Amino acid sequence: MQDKNNLENFSINLRYLCGFYSSISDVCRRLSINRQQFNRYLSGKSFPSFKNLKIICDFFGIETEEIIENPNRFKNRVSPVSQLDSQQAIPENMAKILMPLLTKSSKEMERYEGYYYRYFYSFGFPGFIFRSFVKIYRLKDVYYMKHIERSSGKDPLLGARLTIKYHGLVFLLADRLFLVESEPELDSTISETILTPSYRPNNPYLSGLMICAASGGAHQPGSARTVFEYLGKNIDIRAAMKKCDLFHHSDPSIPKNIKQAIANVITPEEFTFTPPRS
Predict the structure, then answer these.
(1) 55 sits in which H/E element
(2) What is the SS3 assignment for 177?
(3) Is the pTM of this model over 0.90?
(4) CATH code assigned to 4-79
(5) What is the CATH code for 106-262?
(6) What is the pLDDT of residues 3-15, one digit of tens each?
């Protein structure tokens, strides 16, 4: 990873990311990395240890392989929505509505920062449940999300190993959490999730509904119940990721209460699709 091109790309991309903060000193304080050492990273004189690389990438909400990408591609991938300008195809009145939501006070969003498991029935593999991995994080005054779906390929019914990464925005409105995400590599779908917070003590779950067009050839739109399980702000990411996969609905690896919550069933008393009760 430490060849000349990677080192140069790393320093350029790191400087770009730091530009979203008030000062380099502020970034160093948040990272708990010595300023003198950090300056060596910025100047391209030194590449961080694996430990510090993970700290830096986790802080900025990116993967270790992304930060050594070509700088032009990297900027297109991570450029914040706050840089919207008049040349972009967003009506002025719409931008006036959205931007205050995206830059809402951190006091209202801080409690949702961290890592989650996300549970939902797969649109592409009927009868199978995704346990995927989500990170909600902040850059400047905007909250973002990263979402990773994976299938280990252990089940022959599901084909080869699969990993799909999504990037998105998160904002709070009327005590509801709105998540809008897309898959940038395939560029084939955008999904929206609306979550209802629970204020019961020690309840780690957020419940809601998601809607998207499946990424398969038919792009069939669908809606499903979903549950987010809060894991914390400081976790063993590798260990958590190992538990993410596609599970048959009969698999005991998915807790019974989760299966009940995400069951896409409408009772006789319901006339619309509603979030699971948490």
Answers:
(1) helix 50-60
(2) strand
(3) no
(4) 1.10.260.40
(5) 2.40.128.120
(6) 778 899 999 999 9
